[in-house]
Amino acid sequence: MNISASLATFAFMYKIVKPLFFSMSPETAHHNVTGGLRRFNKIWGAQALLKALYTVEDKRLEREVFGLKFKNPVGLAAGFDKNAEYIDDMAKLGFGFIEIGTVTPRPQPGNDKPRMFRLVHDEALINRMGFNNQGADVAAARLKNLKNKEGLIIGGNIGKNKVTPNEEAVSDYIYCFNALFDYVDYFVVNVSSPNTPGLRDLQEKEPLTKLLNTLQELNLKKANPKPILLKIAPDLTDSQLDDIVEIVMNTKIAGVIATNTTIVREGLQSDPAIVQEMGGVSGKPLTKRSTEVIRYLATKSNGAFPIIGVGGIHSAEDALEKLDAGASLIQIYTGFIYEGPALISKICKGLLSK
Asked: Which residues bind FMN (predicted)?
């Protein structure tokens, strides 16, 4: 059996087992899948098999963005590997880069369970995880001990602890920045999650400018400054997006990730009892809006800074739309859950056939 046929078989198998995973709570399924992948990778020859099945290696896929060389433009979005536990395992599935986090200075349990919900009819998720993570120092220790990055770019998504008031938020971001600096290739400042009370207030012009300027000043004092990106919400108005463009230009950060989850609930077809759960929506309902934000930022800035597109990418066509709108790279998460690991290679092959 050739590789293409094997990949098709594995994609079909994922469709067969997906109902089993979807019969579990989302968090239970997540832990079972990641744990199972780790156990599978310990079997002799398993890593080579996964790499052969899912990794598309072609020079034409390489991208150089904000001074870093990506072996392909398809990344794993933050939230999947919050604590840098599964980088080696996920790398075998063909990702060009992996973003860990969101990481906070101190460990925190996040919001009460249940805190993630599937909107199956919408091919979406609602999450109100609340930055559950083991803390920046634990993530840094794991990154330090990574055995083989295999050319993989690693991003560090950083945030503030829930108990830290916004007036003191800068200190939390500084702590995470310093803790992870030696072990990640780029940083993402997350002020756009809807699940930490008051966090999105930091997207306002004055506090955001202060935060980014502070991190940039610290960054430029380092011997090898790292790219700093800003992750924004899809729910910003055009006027607020204009402010984002101005802030990025003035603070001279490396770029923007567009977008985080949305608090909008319009047009959802799933069980109303689930739809009304608090949290951010990801997946297909976000496809159009995230692309609109990418296009607006790229047009308004005249392509002055790179954009990583994320939100509702469930196919190669979705990825191409983001890239055509002005994204330099893309990230997946919810699409990865609904479509399975073959999505990465499908996107890469779609780019090569364009």
From this structure: 78-82, 102, 157, 190, 231, 259, 283, 312, 333-334
Q: Taking the CA of residue 71 as centre, how many other CA atoms within 13 Å lie in the half-sphere pointing to its CB?
A: 18
Is 40 marked as a binding-site residue? Answer: no
Q: What are the pLDDT digits (tens) for 260-307?
A: 999 999 999 999 999 999 999 999 999 999 999 999 999 999 999 999
Query: Torsion-angle region of residue 258: left (phi > 0), alpha (psi -120 to 50) or beta?
Result: beta
Strand positions, DSSP E, 90-232: 97-103, 116-119, 124-127, 153-158, 186-190, 228-232
* Tens-place pLDDT, residues 123-140: 999 999 999 999 999 999
Q: Which of 206, 74, 51, 228 is nearest to 155 (CA)?
A: 228
Strand partners, 189: 158, 230
Tell me, what amino acid is at 325? A
78 is in an annotated binding site: yes
Token readout for 32 is 């079972």
Known catalytic residues? 193
> What is the C-alpha separation between 157 and 139, in angstroms, rounded?
11
Chain segment 272-284, per-residue pLDDT in tens: 999 999 999 999 9
Domains of the chain, CATH where assigned: 3-353 (3.20.20.70)
> 34 a known binding residue?
no
